[in-house]
């Protein structure tokens, strides 16, 4: 699962594991698999984002989304309890992460368009695209046998930035949502360049080989 491969989650892993292990054990006893938790978390994230955000209910929407995002941590805990993570589980987790991100930023884009904030709608769309590129660069590099475990703004950091700024913006804190999105856009763009340079250094230092 992606749970084990990001810097932020590595720091939170001991606390998260201690808190979520009893819940994970109870779900496993009831025949619920990590993949089912992953799918439910993504479905809840997308549904909450598309329901609350376009209506301008940013604070409650962020709270509900955060609840479902925790499923991304719970499935990792459950996967370790049931044995080595499966290839399918890792693939499903990464794929549904992109779906969840699309739901969150699409909800924000819809709200900005409805409320006449066209510039912020463009910034939110850029954050979505840049986040997808950040993930693609890593996936493509690893597919070519290269490492790409670098990045200022990986998915956990991006989620924290957008959910905190949206939640506080929903509480009426001035400029926080705009500032958060602009900062996220800059951090995502920087991460794309950071990863491209990291992969390029590896690629030019290795002997040419046939591409898959």
Largest sheet: none
- Unreliable residue stretches: 1-5
Please tell me how large the radius of gyration is. Answer: 18 Å
Number of β-strand runs: 0
Number of helices: 8
The computed structural class is mainly alpha
Measure the end-to-end span: 24 Å
This entry's quaternary arrangement is single chain
Strand content: under 5%
Can you write the helix and strand succession as a string? HHHHHHHH
Helix content: over 70%
Overall form: flat
Report the average pLDDT across residues.
Answer: 88
Active site: 97
Keywords: Cell membrane, Lipid biosynthesis, Lipid metabolism, Magnesium, Membrane, Metal-binding, Phospholipid biosynthesis, Phospholipid metabolism, Transferase, Transmembrane, Transmembrane helix
Cofactor: Mg(2+)
Protein name: Phosphatidylinositol phosphate synthase
Protein described:
With 212 residues, this protein is mainly alpha-helical. Helix content is 78%, strand content 0%. The chain contains 8 helices and no strands. It has helices spanning 7-29, 34-52, 58-69, 71-81, 87-114, 118-143, 155-170, 176-205. The longest helix is centred in the C-terminal third of the chain and has 30 residues, at 176-205. It is flat. Mean pLDDT is 88; it is low at 1-5.
């Amino acid at each position: 699962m992606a749970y084990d491969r990001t810097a932020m989650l590595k720091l939170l892993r001991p606390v998260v594991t201690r808190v979520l292990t009893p819940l994970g054990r109870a779900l496993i006893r009831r025949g619920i698999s990590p993949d089912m938790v992953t799918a439910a978390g993504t479905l809840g994230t997308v549904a909450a984002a598309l329901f609350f955000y376009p209506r301008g209910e940013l604070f409650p929407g962020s709270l509900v989304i955060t609840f479902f995002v925790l499923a991304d941590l719970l499935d990792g805990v459950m996967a370790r309890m049931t044995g080595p993570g499966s290839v399918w589980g890792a693939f499903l987790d990464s794929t549904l992460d992109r779906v969840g991100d699309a739901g969150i930023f699409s909800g924000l884009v819809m709200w900005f368009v409805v409320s006449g904030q066209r510039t912020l709608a463009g910034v939110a769309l850029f954050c979505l695209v840049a986040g997808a590129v950040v993930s693609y660069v890593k996936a493509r590099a690893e597919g070519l046998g290269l490492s790409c475990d670098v990045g200022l703004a990986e998915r956990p950091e991006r989620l924290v930035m957008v959910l905190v700024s949206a939640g506080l913006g929903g509480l009426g804190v001035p400029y926080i949502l705009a500032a958060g999105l602009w900062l996220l856009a800059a951090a995502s763009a920087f991460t794309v360049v950071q990863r491209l340079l990291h992969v390029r250094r590896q690629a030019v230092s290795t002997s040419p080989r046939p591409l898959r």
